[in-house]
Amino acid sequence: MAVPGGHRQRGRPRAVIGEPVLPRVPLRRLLRVASVACGIQFGWALQLSLLTPYVQELGIPHAWSSVIWLCGPLSGLLVQPLVGHLSDRCNSRFGRRRPFIVAGASSIVVAVLIIGFSADIGGLLGDSADQRPRAVATFVVGFWLLDVANNVTQGPCRALLADLTEKDHRRTRVANAYFSLFMAVGNVLGFATGSYSGWFRIFWFTNTSSCNVDCANLKSAFLLDIIFIAITTYISITAAQELPLSSSSRSTHISEEMAESTHAQEAFLWELFGTFRYLSGSIWIILFVTALTWIGWFPFLLFDTDWMGREIYGGKPNEGQNYNTGVRMGAFGLMLNSVVLGITSVLMEKLCRKWGAGFVWGLSNILMSLCFLLMLILSAVVRHMDFLGHDLPPSGVVIAALIVFSILGIPLAVSLSILLQKGMKISLIHLLGCSFCFDQIGSS
User: Fold this and answer.
1) For helices 281-307 and 322-355, what crossing angle results, to 10°?
2) What share of the chain has pLDDT > 70, as a percent?
3) How far is CA 300 from CA 151, 308, 381, 418, in A?
4) How does the average pLDDT of the chain come out, rounded?
């Protein structure tokens, strides 16, 4: 259909006869819509840095703490396709994506409250100072709900940006860049929050008879997360102006999207394993290397702050302050890791153009292996020192550990770029990595 004046707009889809041409969404509105990623990632950063140590303080053995994290890949494998399927067909007057974003964000708030107050709930239900099974059960329920809620929220957030940019590929790339930017900001702020030990003084009411200073500090950090995600969710959903699915002006466009989405998700759910027989040998090698890579990443991502508290600072949960000091220093190292990860992500396209994607990926895996080897060396060096359990470790050892954490941001950026390209299929590899991590820790 010709535009008056004889010129057709570039970068915009051709209008269907009888369908009004919707105005382009301003970039500043896309920026506001993408801001919800900051709140979601803020909570993820707190979860990654503080919850593995905290669950051990509640009484779950070190060898069993990783089994709780199995919910992440499981919910990614099952929840995201289901949410995508339902949101594509949602006919709410508020739009297709926003109801799921609000529901997911509300579930995150509930889960965070359950996690933060798990020790208090356990105390009310009859836990003692030495035995806290009810607090552990409450924590596990909140933790799994949090993982599910995060997966419920993230998919519709990205889909909403795709809906608003429609088929304008340049603006889609800009919207994804905004989303990634806010994820990086949320990571930095979340890890910085986890590294600070004085939040309980601001939220003085968090320190109770069932919740000591370290527990109160974690509870306070999650209260900040609630405030943060509430603000960013409000900014995002008020900026997005979705049309209901029943709107006749977009029925043709939405039907096409639904058909494509339905085919992709049905193929994922029912034909994934059948497609393996069609893969070439080179693809199998790539998948095998990716699996090995994530088997290496998962122990780091789950036990990085725990490693800093145990191996570098020589502490144990609920025994002195060395462990918790190390956990906070580990969170600071993860903040540095996120900064390096963000810088690497910005430079990724240039690096791949210059050296090739395969070379960059291979080099990043070698760098990752060397960093993990350095962590083993640092652990061995610290074991031969006599400060353990009493004084803080030498500054040189701590700085070396922080440098290793920071450098690991480079290969992690490369691995995550492959993760985003492969989508939810990579969750199978995550399951393998998480299971292997549990097996290795359980046998130690």
Assistant:
1) 150
2) 79
3) 21, 11, 19, 18
4) 78
- Which tokens sit at 184? 């990086």
Do the beta carbons of residue 300 and residue 440 sit within 8 Å?
A: no
Cα angle 377-184-151, degrees, rounded to a multiple of 5: 95
In this predicted structure, what is the pLDDT of residue 22? Answer: 52
**H helix runs in 196-280, sequence order:** 199-202, 213-239, 251-275
Does residue 155 have a pLDDT over 70? yes
The per-residue pLDDT for 235 is: 92
Distance CA(189)–CA(205), nearest Å, equals 23
**Mean pLDDT, residues 56-66 taken together:** 80
Prediction pTM value: 0.77
Tokens of 315: 């502490």
Length in residues, the chain: 444
Residue 248 has pLDDT above 70, yes or no: no
Q: Is the dihedral of CA 111, 117, 122, 127 positive or negative?
A: positive
* Residue among 53, 81, 203, 57 at smallest CA distance from 132: 57
Q: Which residue has the tokens 């035995």?
A: 131
- 170-174, 317-321, 375-379: lowest mean pLDDT where? 170-174
- Picking from 88, 105, 188, 122, the residue whose alpha carbon sits closest to that of residue 409 is 188
Burial call 226-251: b when 16+ CB within 10 Å, e when fewer: bebbeebbebbbebbebeebeeeebe
Q: Which long-range contacts (CB under 8 A, 24 or more apart) does 127-135 make?
A: 127/210, 131/59, 132/58, 132/59, 133/59, 135/58, 135/59, 135/210
* Strand partners for 316: 319
Q: How far apart are the first and last CA of the chain?
A: 69
Band of pLDDT at residue 437, cut at 50, 70 and 90: very low
Q: Could you write out the DSSP letters of every residue in 161-178?
A: HHHHHTT-HHHHHHHHHH
Q: Name the 3-class secondary structure at 316.
A: strand
Mean pLDDT of 298-327: 88
CB 317 within 8 A of CB 173: no
Q: Stretch 335-353: mean pLDDT, rounded? A: 85
